[in-house]
């Protein structure tokens, strides 16, 4: 694909993202009508649905041959298979629980995959005006400035991001606790922003060294992957080896060495069903 085409895809998506971001910004401190999805802490609001519709309508009008995987479309029974066709993978509000509470870490996350490979990524938190972007081979940016991972190779000097997530699965909870017990005594600290995309953005900008989660979906990580790798970081399977994008598991890190130290130590959890 020509780089002018990628530029056109990027500019179109960015323009729509800015428009949709206004909905999130205007409503974050209002009361929301909340619907429950997979369990009592997995939410969807009217805003999630409107943002997804605005983005998919806008992109499909410009690019009628492109395909879409959207969080709310998938939750409503839409399918999530990734083919070689240009596919936009969209989380309209990543950090919905934050949005519902007015905790200012929610974002729009959009990744474009072509030939099943990440091509561009946009993560936009309209509340704090944080824009993270990347295009294949062209680096990663935060509000227009080039960013890089910290490059840290020593797990004992790391901030590691992990999440409680939005499921009440007791086995997953035991795994979470075991990993916390293993990490807290040896690393600098644990953090969580409540959004997979924003956690990945923190690794990309060198503010944190690693993030892992069991139970996320492809739309939570589709933009973050290219932003982390273009910032010089590593995105992989938390058990080691290359990322398995539909496996609902991810690990990203500031270096290959740090990723390996974590993968060797992590207690593993394999969420079901997969996204594909
Ligand atoms: C959220 C993720 C977060 C995870 C939550 C949820 P949503 O995405 O960003 O990392 O812990 O369970 O999946 O549902 O707010 O788009």
UniProtKB/TrEMBL annotation:
The keyword Magnesium is assigned to this record: yes
Gene Ontology biological process terms in this record: inositol biosynthetic process; phosphatidylinositol phosphate biosynthetic process; signal transduction
Residues given in the record as Mg(2+) binding sites: 71, 91, 94, 220
Protein name: Inositol-1-monophosphatase
Cofactor field: Mg(2+)
Alphabetized InterPro entries for the sequence: IMPase, Inositol_monoP_metal-BS, Inositol_monoPase_Li-sen, Inositol_monophosphatase-like, Inositol_monophosphatase_CS
Stated family: Belongs to the inositol monophosphatase superfamily.
Species this chain originates from: Ignelater luminosus
Presence of the UniProt keyword Hydrolase in the record: yes
Enzyme class: hydrolase
Catalytic activity reported: a myo-inositol phosphate + H2O = myo-inositol + phosphate
Pathway named in the protein's UniProt entry: Polyol metabolism; myo-inositol biosynthesis; myo-inositol from D-glucose 6-phosphate: step 2/2
């Amino acid at each position: 694909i020509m780089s002018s085409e990628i530029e056109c895809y990027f500019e179109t998506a960015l323009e729509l993202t800015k428009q949709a971001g206004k909905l999130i910004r205007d409503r974050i401190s209002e009361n929301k009508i909340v619907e429950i999805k997979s369990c009592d802490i997995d939410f969807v609001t009217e805003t999630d649905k409107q943002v997804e519709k605005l983005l998919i309508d806008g992109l499909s009008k410009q690019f009628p041959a492109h395909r879409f995987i959207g969080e709310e479309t998938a939750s409503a029974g839409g399918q999530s298979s990734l083919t070689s066709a240009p596919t936009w993978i969209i989380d309209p509000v990543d950090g919905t629980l934050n949005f519902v509470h007015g905790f200012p870490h929610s974002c729009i996350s959009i990744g474009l995959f072509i030939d099943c490979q990440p091509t561009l990524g946009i993560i936009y938190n309209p509340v704090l005006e944080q824009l993270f972007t990347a295009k294949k081979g062209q680096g990663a940016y935060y509000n227009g400035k080039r960013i890089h991972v910290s490059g840290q190779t020593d797990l004992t000097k790391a901030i590691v991001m992990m999440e409680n997530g939005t499921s009440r699965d007791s086995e997953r909870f035991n795994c979470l606790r075991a990993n916390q017990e293993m990490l807290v005594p040896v690393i600098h600290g644990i953090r969580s922003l409540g959004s997979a995309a924003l956690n990945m953005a923190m690794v990309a900008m060198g503010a944190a060294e690693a993030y892992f989660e069991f139970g996320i979906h492809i739309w939570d990580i589709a933009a973050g992957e290219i932003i982390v790798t273009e910032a010089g970081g590593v995105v992989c399977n938390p058990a080691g080896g290359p990322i398995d994008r539909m496996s609902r598991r991810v690990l990203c890190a500031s270096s290959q060495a740090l990723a390996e130290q974590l993968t060797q130590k992590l207690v593993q959890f394999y969420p079901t069903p997969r996204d594909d």
